[in-house]
Amino acid sequence: MSNKEFNTVSLIRKKREGETLTKQEIQYLIRAYTEDRIPDYQMSAFLMASFLNGLNTTEAAALTHSMLHSGIVVDLNHVKGTKVDKHSTGGVGDKLSLILAPIVAACGVPVPMISGRGLGHTGGTLDKLESIPGFTVDVNLDRYKEILEKQNLVLVGQTEEIAPADKRLYALRDVTATVESIPLIAGSIMSKKLAEGIDALVLDVKFGSGAFMKKHEDAVKLAETLVGIGEEFGKETIAFLTNMEQPLGYAVGNWLEVKESIDCLNGGGPDDVMEITHLLAGTMIYLGKKAGSIEEGIEKSKAAIANGSAFQKWIDIVEEQGGDTSVIKNPESYPGAGYTAEVAATGDGYITKMDAFAMGMVSVELGAGRRAKEDSVDPAAGFILHKKIGDKVKEGETFATLYTNKQEMLKTAKKGLQLAITIENRPPDNLRQITHMVDKNGLHNYGA
Ligand code: URA
Question: 91 φ, ψ to 5°?
């Protein structure tokens, strides 16, 4: 691609009018923005025009390519084995990376995982990892490679060198209401993932009230776009469509989710969390060539929990990255939140719906997420659900417990959770946790 300069206003106008930009034009926008030659206000206008009018497949590929090459593409050839990562499009209570990364690494597949922070109502793996005292997610590239080689696993944040254009655009999108766009999400995810040195990728594409894609059909389109980009860049990519109509598991909030993950790695954990974890881990083990099929990968994933190797790998990586393993071995010793409160059901019946977006916002208000870029998160804040969709409740019965250090938020948080659940006389239809798989051959029904 060339270094040609263009008139930024003309390109914004072109996208505003619904026209298609050339590869060179997209490359110019991304490069000039990363080099501070385009200000945030012009990039915001371009993002909004792209959000409203969309980007076609060629434009989305050009965007990914430009974002990927805004930084370096890590060479992990010195690390033996097929390197596989997993990425989720984001949800509430989604702690799967914390469980599956040590499982897959324990099964012999190297996992170089570069994760993000919370975005909007969704939590982020980095914030969860940082709730472990001492755990550092900020490492340079040499240390990134060293940890991976030693542990078969590394869990870090995006460095300045990896897809810097995404780092800046991600923060700008968060505050300009331009997150929920299929091509923008696809470019953001794939530029980071392709830069980290992987050979193959598993994607967890979420749909429902707590996902960025509320409609299943939009999630399918996103999955197809992500897989298409992965294959175009020569990386085997498999995506699953998974349910985010309610928080995953029972815990929402950084340390609370780490604690639930420890239960999972010790052989407990909620069924919805473990069903998706084993599927994604099994697929990674298969793509990492340590199993002949996804089914065999799932069996290996279950065995890694049963024989304790996944939990040992978790202890090893926490120690390697500076974390305090005593709270992992004894989670009850973790300093809790200053205030807790029980949330009571306002009627009798079955919980038929949960507004997972609203519930994610409650956890942000309790301190588990950020309202502004510069906010810090409270590791102990969040909530534990005691009931989920399909469970029976009685008026006055506790269905959730809040944890926070902001006493003033308790009242609105309680109300927020009460309003987020729907109670009806009849039980709801069963929720399908995993509906489809998308691979290079297209969309397949999963487990119906
Ligand atoms: N996750 C990402 O990495 N980027 C997005 O834009 C949304 C979710």
Answer: -160, -170
Walk me through the domains of the chain, giving residue ranges and CATH numbers.
Answer: 3-54 (1.20.970.10), 84-329+434-445 (3.40.1030.10), 336-424 (3.90.1170.30)
The single-letter code of the amino acid at 388 is K
DSSP code of residue 328: H
Q: Is-above-0.85 flag for pTM?
A: yes
The ligand 1 atom at the shortest distance from the C-alpha of residue 88 is: 1
The residue to which tokens 């069903």 are assigned: 275
**Ligand 1 centroid to 185 CA: how many Å?**
5
Alpha-carbon distance of 36 to 342, in angstroms, equals 49
Give dist(CA 255, CA 298) in Å, integer. 27
210: DSSP letter: T
Helix axes 294-306, 271-287, angle to 10 degrees: 120
| pLDDT tens per residue across span 106-121 | 999 999 999 888 777 8
Classify residue 4 as exposed, middle or buried by CB count within 10 Å of its CB (0-12, 13-18, 19+).
exposed
The number of helix segments (H) and strand segments (E) in the chain equals 17, 14
Question: 177 CA distance to ligand 1 centroid (A)?
Answer: 13
> What is d(CA 169, CA 250) in angstroms, rounded to the nearest whole number?
32
